[in-house]
Amino acid sequence: MTNRSNYLACGALLALLAAPAPAQEMDMKHEMAASPVPAAAKDLRTVIVLTAAERAVVLQEMRDMLGGTQAVVAGLANDDMKAVASGARPQGMHVMHGVPASLRARLPMGFKQMGMAMHTDFDQIALDAESLGDPRHTLKQMDALLQKCVACHSTYRIDPAVK
Ligand code: HEC
After folding, report:
1. pLDDT in tens, 104-141
2. From the alpha carbon of 48, which atom of ligand 1 is closest?
């Protein structure tokens, strides 16, 4: 007899002994426990362990990056290159100087390099938007910038340290 039919038999027996019958519920639980995690769902990203407070700092910075990205796109959509520059500039290199040394020390070199490249891109986007005022050029820069977001997100994840 298979596990499944064992369960069904067990459930049927219980149904005879006690009402209401829990047979169906038990069978569903059994199915869920037995279903394997599909290989595609495996998370192969490198884990960076930070304290809850450090993780919050990084994630806040990330949300700021998304806000900067949105502001640049809005500027492009409105033919407003001044808005592109003022949207990009707050996400430039100076952000990295505000990262505490203790947190910086915990971040892998690859993470820091990609982070630096991203902030440099934001600075360049701001500079070029002002000096060139060419939306097509900015769009190309945004493509290169977003590739960095994508590359880092597929490489790392951040877990809070378990105390
Ligand atoms: C240097 C690496 C790196 C770069 C570059 C990067 N990110 Fe992230 N980002 C991360 C990591 C790591 C997380 C946490 C993911 C996790 O733990 O699952 C994250 C999380 C986020 C989150 C979720 C924040 C939250 O509150 O949970 C947003 C939004 C985000 N990033 C936006 C961006 C955008 C937009 C860009 C590019 C402009 C970008 N990131 C570039 C590494 C990076």
Report:
1. 999 999 999 999 999 999 999 999 999 999 999 999 99
2. 12
